[in-house]
Amino acid sequence: MARLSTDHLLGIRPLTPDDIEIIFRTADEFKAVLQRPIKKVPSLRDITVANLFFENSTRTRLSFELAEKRLSADVINFSASTSSVKKGESLLDTVKNILSMKVDMIVLRHPEPGAPHFLSRHIEARIINAGDGTHEHPTQALLDAYTLREVFGTLEGRKIAIVGDIRHSRVALSNIYCLQKLGAEIMVVGPPTLIPPTIDALGVRVSYRLREALEWADAANVLRIQLERQRVRYIPSLREYARYFGISRATLDAIQSPPIIMHPGPINRGVELDSDVADSSASVILQQVENGVAIRMAVLFLLAQKIRQSV
User: Fold this and answer.
1) Where does residue 222 fall: left (phi above 0), alpha (psi -120 to 50 degrees), or beta otherwise?
2) CATH architecture, domain defined by 17-136+289-310
3) Can 17-136+289-310 and 138-284 be said to share one CATH topology?
4) Mean pLDDT for the stretch of residues 5-17
5) Rounded Cα distance, 221 and 230, in Å
6) The 74-79 sheet, strands edge to edge
């Protein structure tokens, strides 16, 4: 059976195209399982997974937890708001205490970039990065690319626009890395203040005009404006942003071949997307959510193979 070349999923950059293909093929198998009347398999019956979320999350946390339970893992959920972290305990001490309970795998979301990488150098458990600050969100990028593969068959030569708050988005960076490894062309679009000035060094196109990007793209991955990460004001107002970069039905109708619409969630309806776009046939947003469980099942299963291999 094919195995990943990496012991953790800390980001997209360490993955090879073959790694991504292994994850996708494994997700295909688990997606078939999810269509059955009995959606549970015993693949992780002897594995204990701790979900450590130091930031608020709904979709990612629930998706991981469901994936773990579908695989029959033992699951521990941790919330920083009710933990000893509030009393000043360090991240490493917190995790070491949890690992003393014989935890095999950690799913970590943390506000500081590099937190999963730091832990991977100090503990033996396998680590899955569920989002580290504004750095990366690898499983979101994998499920986005997997969804695009379902739609197009291949990503080779496809044109993908990433729209919105590129500066503060871990989803954008992981998507750029992942889609480029699979042969796609990338354009980022948004207000100049929300696009990092050196992003063209990643080999992406840059545009400040929404219509130009939508006319160019086969698919548009629309990002949320992350006001909670903005220490200063980068846009005059959400109303102003929606006027120039929000996507409405009229926006798509004005384009001869409009792209499919994606969004990692949660959606600010009426800001980055109007409801008549988010809920339309052009949208694959709910398909992304469904695929998120299959992709996370695949990653958990493949890393569990590494655990068993090392025993």
Assistant:
1) beta
2) 3-Layer(aba) Sandwich (3.40)
3) yes
4) 96
5) 21
6) 74-79, 48-53, 105-110, 126-132
1 band by pLDDT with thresholds 50, 70 and 90 = low
Q: How far apart are CA 154 and CA 203, in angstroms?
A: 20
Element housing 202 (H / E):
none
DSSP class of residue 280 equals S
Q: What is the sign, positive or negative, of the torsion defined by CA atoms of 48, 62, 31, 110?
A: negative
d(CA 119, CA 112): 12
Contact 185, 158 (CB under 8 A): yes
pLDDT of 22-38, one tens digit each?
A: 999 999 999 999 999 99
| Tokens representing residue 137 in the block | 């969100």
**Roughly what angle, to the nearest 10 degrees, separates helices 59-70 and 17-34?**
70
What CA–CA distance (Å, rounded) separates 214 from 252?
Answer: 8
Q: What are the domain boundaries of the chain?
A: 17-136+289-310, 138-284
Output the pTM of the full model: 0.94
Superfamily of domain 138-284 in the CATH hierarchy: Aspartate/ornithine carbamoyltransferase (3.40.50.1370)
Mapped onto helix, strand or coil, the DSSP state of residue 159 is strand
